[in-house]
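Regression test case RT-17, inverse folding.

Input:
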């Protein structure tokens, strides 16, 4: 098997697809995702019950509308400036403090990405007390772990993964969630009684849920929603950062003339889009027809039938991406109207990723957020990040996610400082 770091593996199909009709054409996947006649088709997993990705119709529209305030361009710019960039600056300064001038630093890119992203995720979810590496690591220990339905294991092991997940969630609920909830309840009560102004409320998922709580308030649902946000925002982007860095390293080795573009935001953005196209963070999404539907290719889906939408295959559909569909090419020209460079990596239709702009920012060169994936990718390039020739990366073969368990890199924090000085000059 080819084990080059920038390998584009054939997309894998998880076990939960067995027996379902699969769709792998780009336009048909897009059509199903956008159609109001299809809704969530996942099995009823207790940890997802009632959360944003699994609800549909008016309930979904209303919750999504409320949560959209967390993802305005101004909010995203503030997360990037106040949290992410500070962490990148701190990392670079700490590296310089830990080695002699001119020396390089070895690090695991999987860990770096996860730690940089955790504080932003906690802020958006509304979890307090995550303000340094230790608390971020603790949060991740409690909320990150193997995901049973995407693990390549037998049923017994799957049960064990679920039990472990439940046990860790219980600790998270006591240690992080309960104090964050209590604080928000107090603040919302203070606003209701006129003791505080509405502007003093934090803007995060948990506050929105507490503030909008009706008589049917469900603390367990709030806990699940917060956990969905943490899971949806941290590993997705961290996983993509590793693939992006691997692709860039291989690209520059083959195209040295492009090295001068390694700190060009437009180039790194194009590379990030191409990375997301080839390595979608979700291998499959299941959708269920609420009525009989005839799709545009003439096929008929019966009422209640579930379809498996294969993102990996759809994002390499030759009808859309041509004969070079399996190849990483930051200069790819996707000439189909309405097909973004990253294809369906963020899904489409009403459940399109709510955090897309946070990850990818805006392509406007004159302003706006860069997007956390692009910002981290660029900063790593400014530090000359490259795979460590003395430590092989470890691809995680135990899951259906396309991800590395470890990805050792070398970074040059002195080069980063020089690039920063140039930028300032
Ligand atoms: C590279 C980064 C990311 C990728 C590729 C990605 C991908 C996706 C995909 C494919 C979906 C659709 C899932 C479905 O329909 O069930 C989704 C939904 C979602 N994503 Fe992301 N995501 C990323 C980052 C984020 C971030 C940073 C956040 C939050 C801060 C986030 C929060 C969510 C939420 C809450 C949903 C559910 C939306 C809904 O159902 O209305 N994601 N994401």
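Golden output:
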């Amino acid at each position: 098997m080819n084990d080059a770091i920038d390998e584009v593996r054939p997309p894998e199909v998880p076990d939960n697809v067995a027996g379902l009709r699969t769709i792998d054409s780009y336009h048909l996947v897009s059509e199903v995702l956008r159609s109001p006649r299809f809704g969530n088709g996942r099995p009823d997993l207790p940890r997802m019950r009632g959360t944003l990705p699994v609800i549909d119709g008016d309930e979904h529209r209303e919750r999504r509308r409320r949560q959209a305030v967390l993802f305005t361009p101004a909010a995203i710019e503030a997360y990037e400036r106040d949290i992410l960039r500070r962490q990148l600056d701190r990392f670079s300064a700490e590296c310089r403090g830990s080695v002699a001038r001119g020396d390089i630093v070895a690090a695991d890119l999987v860990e770096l990405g996860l730690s940089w992203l955790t504080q932003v995720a906690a802020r958006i979810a509304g979890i307090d007390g995550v303000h340094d590496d230790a608390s971020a690591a603790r949060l991740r220990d409690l909320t990150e772990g193997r995901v049973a339905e995407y693990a390549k294991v037998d049923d017994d092991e799957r049960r064990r993964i679920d039990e472990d997940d439940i046990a860790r969630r219980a600790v998270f609920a006591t240690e992080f969630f309960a104090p964050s909830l209590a604080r928000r309840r107090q603040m919302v009560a203070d606003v209701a009684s006129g003791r505080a102004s509405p502007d003093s409320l934090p803007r995060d998922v948990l506050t929105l849920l507490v503030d909008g709580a009706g008589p049917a308030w469900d603390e367990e649902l709030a806990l699940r929603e917060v956990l969905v946000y943490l899971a949806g925002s941290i590993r997705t982007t961290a996983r993509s950062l590793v693939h992006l860095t691997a692709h860039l390293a291989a690209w520059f080795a083959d195209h040295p003339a492009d090295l001068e573009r390694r700190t060009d935001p437009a180039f790194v953005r194009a590379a990030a889009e191409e990375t997301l196209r080839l390595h979608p963070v979700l291998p499959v999404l299941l959708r269920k027809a609420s009525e009989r539907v005839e799709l545009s290719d003439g096929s008929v889906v019966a009422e209640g039938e579930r379809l498996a939408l294969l993102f990996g295959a759809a994002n390499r559909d030759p009808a859309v991406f041509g004969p070079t569909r399996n190849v990483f090419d930051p200069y790819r020209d996707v000439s189909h109207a309405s097909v973004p460079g990253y294809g369906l990596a963020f899904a489409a239709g009403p459940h399109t990723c709510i955090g897309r702009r946070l990850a990818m920012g805006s392509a406007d060169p004159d302003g706006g957020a860069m997007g956390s994936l692009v910002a981290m990718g660029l900063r790593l390039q400014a530090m000359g990040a490259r795979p460590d020739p003395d430590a092989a990366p470890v691809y995680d073969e135990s899951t259906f996610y396309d991800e590395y368990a470890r990805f050792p890199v070398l970074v040059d924090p002195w080069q980063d400082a020089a690039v920063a000085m140039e930028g300032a000059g």
